[in-house]
Specification:
The complex is a heterodimer of chains A (116) and B (108). Chain A is mainly β. With 108 residues, chain B is mainly β. In chain B, the strands form three sheets. In chain B, strands 2, 5, 6, 9, 10 and 11 form a six-stranded mixed beta sheet that branches. In chain B, strand 9 and strand 10 form a beta hairpin. The N and C termini of chain B lie far apart (41 Å). Classes of the chains: A mainly beta (116), B mainly beta (108). At the A-B interface, strand 4, strand 5 and helix 1 of A face strand 5, strand 6, strand 9 and strand 10 of B.
């Protein structure tokens, strides 16, 4: 297991296009998180899954954003009708719920989205 | 509301000098606090957590509930400590709330 994997690493898209990112968590981790990070800011929480259930969504997650984790393994984050304000680094993290406090979250390298 | 404040965006110290990265939080309950670090071209990784009261790479952090602070300290900075440091809080919900981060630069 090589940790949390995110694809693609970089994505450049035109405004108005749809984009989809993928996250493969550590295999035994039941919790999966999506964060967004803009320049000069810390990561901001977007949404969280426990197994396949999406348990919490941030107000930052507008109707244009949707996330899925269909089989409780990998997750996808889709942004429809992208806007320039969506340009950011999108981070995925996973954790083993029973050990959150001891091992913390494991983060992926992120997908950098640029909307032109 | 849960909030984490890191008042210094940039901090520069000389090698061998003491380092203190400040973190203040706002949360009405009993928080769990963490420090994460991101070295150049690497992913965000856990440095330490208050629950274990450990020292990692010479860094320590003490939770002060009276001052709602969780400052990160190291007595003698090393060049390899140069990185971006984020303080994070986990309250009643499962999510981590991060501060803005402090970029620490250790000068030789």
């Amino acid at each position: 297991d090589t940790g949390v994997s995110q694809n693609p690493r970089h994505k450049i898209t035109k405004r108005g296009q749809n984009v989809t990112f993928r996250c493969d968590p550590i295999s035994e981790h039941n919790r999966l998180y999506w964060y967004r990070q803009t320049l000069g800011q810390g990561p901001e929480f977007l949404t969280y899954f426990q197994n396949e259930a999406q348990l919490e969504k941030s107000r930052l997650l507008s109707d244009r954003f949707s996330a899925e984790r269909p089989k409780g393994s990998f997750s996808t984050l889709e942004i429809q009708r992208t806007e320039q304000g969506d340009s950011a680094m999108y981070l995925c993290a996973s954790s083993l719920g029973s050990r959150d406090l001891t091992t913390g979250y494991t983060f992926g390298s992120g997908t950098r989205l640029t909307v032109v | 509301a849960q909030r984490v404040t890191q008042p210094e965006k940039l901090l520069s110290v000389f090698k061998g000098a003491p380092v203190e990265l400040k973190c203040n939080y706002s949360y009405s309950g009993s928080p769990e606090l963490f420090w994460y670090v991101q070295y150049s071209r690497q992913r965000l990784q856990l440095l330490l957590r208050h629950i274990s009261r450990e020292s990692i790479k010479g860094f320590t952090a003490d939770l002060n509930k009276g001052e709602t602070s969780f400052h990160l300290k190291k007595p003698f900075a090393q060049e390899e400590d140069s990185a971006m440091y984020y303080c994070a809080l986990k309250g009643g919900a499962q999510k981590l709330v991060f501060g803005q981060g402090t970029r620490l630069t250790i000068n030789p």
